């Protein structure tokens, strides 16, 4: 196939223009001071057809030559014990672990700590932001969702998908989580190999994959956009919910996700250092994404109905109330245009809960010490994760 020359094909489409001139994109520009243009489009667009070859090579050499459980146990040993240059291991294992075990010279452990503390002290607002802005907002980008659709994520159910996301996010955002061989480091490596396994399986089994339009499955540019969701979009959501954060915490959040991205095999020049860069990078990527399609709507409604299916809450009225609260937050955090495209149901009094939350946050942040907020947030988030792991029976990464 001839090398595809990618253009910002949706830059003149109403959904793109509206997002960046009147919607959340405009808010992101105002929030970050970004200067958006297409001058760097060619520099970044090549990553739409770029993948993590180090991860793919391990999957080919280890996972595709052994039973899955045997391969997983082997990889876990490498993660936990490390790989030295003299170890007798497959060449692909050497290559990947020499990269992940080489701590980049830009890494600042104090900034990692500040980023983790912001994630923890934001408590339930962190979880609301992940679910009702980052995840469901991502469903508006039709091509980004194609790997989820073709790997039949809908059949697995939203409870399991949400549990997997929560398991990953919590474990990479605790104190010292990303030190070599620590739990967050382990989750990052395993997630990286899950992406490679899914990508190679799609290329092998799904003959109708439209590489020209959709990019490579789980390509590096889409990965960049996903992890900007965990940093820029997440931070914007916290602000909308009435949270405040210091410059140090803000820099720490971007630094944390830059390092997670590095461990996941995302090229370093795709990993933004701050909200200005992140917004400018995100602007370019959105120009190659069409708006919601029928698959987007299915994914969004599956997530909305997760509250009704989840056995954590015992009574039906509790489940319906939780669904109402998430719908309210979705309308509050996302553009009205995005909500309409995803067919988010309209509910009466949808602004009451988010606005009450904003009011309470402003009082809580002034009354309770930062140290106590971090401790309580960590405890509450770990409890939510424990509840999800209980109903899904096991950790998602073992």
UniProtKB/TrEMBL annotation:
Superkingdom: Bacteria
ER-bound oxygenase mpaB/mpaB'/Rubber oxygenase catalytic domain boundaries: 156-345
GO molecular function per UniProt: oxidoreductase activity
UniProt-listed Pfam families: MPAB_Lcp_cat (PF09995)
Protein name: ER-bound oxygenase mpaB/mpaB'/Rubber oxygenase catalytic domain-containing protein
Organism: Epilithonimonas zeae
């Amino acid at each position: 196939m001839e090398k595809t020359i990618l253009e910002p094909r949706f830059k003149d489409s109403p959904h793109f223009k509206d997002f960046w001139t009147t919607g959340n994109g405009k808010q992101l520009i105002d929030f970050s001071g970004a200067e958006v243009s297409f001058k760097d489009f060619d520099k970044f667009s090549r990553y739409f057809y770029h993948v993590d070859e180090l991860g793919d090579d391990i999957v080919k050499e280890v996972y595709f030559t052994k039973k899955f459980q045997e391969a997983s146990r082997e990889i876990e040993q490498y993660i936990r014990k490390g790989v030295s240059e003299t170890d007798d291991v497959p060449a692909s294992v050497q290559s990947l672990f020499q990269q992940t075990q080489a701590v980049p010279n830009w890494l600042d452990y104090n900034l990692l700590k500040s980023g983790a503390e912001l994630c923890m002290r934001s408590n339930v607002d962190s979880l609301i932001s992940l679910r009702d802005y980052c995840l469901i907002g991502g469903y508006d980008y039709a091509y980004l969702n194609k790997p989820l659709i073709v790997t039949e994520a809908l059949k697995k159910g939203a409870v399991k998908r949400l549990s997997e996301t929560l398991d990953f996010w919590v474990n990479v955002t605790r104190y010292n989580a990303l030190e070599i061989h620590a739990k967050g480091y382990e989750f990052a490596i395993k997630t990286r190999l899950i992406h490679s396994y899914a990508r190679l399986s799609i290329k092998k089994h799904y003959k109708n994959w439209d590489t020209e339009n959709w990019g490579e499955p789980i390509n590096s540019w889409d990965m960049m956009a996903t992890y900007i969701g965990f940093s820029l979009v997440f931070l914007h959501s916290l602000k909308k919910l009435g949270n405040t954060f210091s410059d140090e915490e803000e820099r720490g959040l971007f630094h944390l996700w830059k390092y997670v991205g590095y461990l996941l095999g995302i090229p370093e020049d795709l990993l933004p250092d701050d909200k200005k860069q992140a917004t400018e990078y995100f602007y370019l990527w959105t120009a190659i994404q069409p708006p919601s399609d029928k698959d987007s709507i299915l994914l969004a409604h599956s997530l909305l109905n997760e509250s009704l299916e989840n056995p954590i809450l015992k009574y039906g009225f509790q489940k319906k109330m939780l669904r109402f609260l998430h719908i309210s937050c979705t309308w509050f955090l996302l553009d009205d245009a995005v909500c309409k495209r995803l067919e988010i149901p309209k509910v009466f009094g949808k602004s009451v809960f988010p606005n009450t939350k904003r009011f309470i946050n402003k009082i809580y942040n002034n009354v309770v010490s930062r140290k106590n907020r971090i401790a309580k947030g960590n405890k509450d988030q770990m409890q939510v994760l424990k509840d999800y792991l209980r109903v899904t029976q096991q950790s998602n990464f073992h």
